[in-house]
Amino acid sequence: MDLGSLITRFRAELAKFGAVGLAAYVVDVSIFNFLRFHGGEGVLFDKPLTAKAVSVAVATTFAYFGNRYWTFGHRARTSFRREYVLFFALNGAAMVIAIGCLWISHYLLNFTSPLADNLSANGIGLVFGTAFRFWGYHTFVFPEEIAEPTS
């Protein structure tokens, strides 16, 4: 495959990744805000980290299927179990990034408003986590080719 084709395919993957990510972002932010603020004080109003963990878990499942079957659908397939576990592990690391941003803002800097929580978790944390996820999915979860086992 020539360089132009590789660049075109990379751009297509990046665009699809962005579209899936945007949809997963909507799922994540919607669930987070519902859990924290539905009816004024949601069921997890006093537990912003738990709310974020739940919203990320649901959004991650959505994103796995979007990325597996659309973004990286042309790539080699490995077992569902391997991909899903690795996908969740990388998302777990990305969630730690987002929760870390939220923790710093909410508890260390004492910025506790709904806007501050959203900016730290769903803004700053999202940017850092997204870059990490694309690299991880592209490199490890949905590899270009399956490595042959060595004897």
Number of domains: 1
What number is the mean pLDDT? 89
Please give the radius of gyration in angstroms.
Answer: 17 Å
Which percent range describes the beta-strand content? under 5%
**How far apart, in Å, are the first and last alpha carbons?**
29 Å
Biggest pleated sheet: none
Which spans of ≥5 residues are poorly predicted at pLDDT below 50?
none
Helix content: over 70%
Helix/strand/pairing class, anyone? mainly alpha
Total of DSSP H or I helical runs spanning 4+ residues = 4
**What is the overall silhouette?**
elongated
Number of strands: 0
Helices and strands, in N-to-C order?
HHHH
Explain what this protein looks like in three dimensions:
- Helices cover 77% and strands 0% of the residues.
- By secondary structure, it is an all-alpha fold.
- It has one domain.
- The longest helix is centred in the first third of the chain and has 35 residues, at 3-37.
- The mean pLDDT is 89.
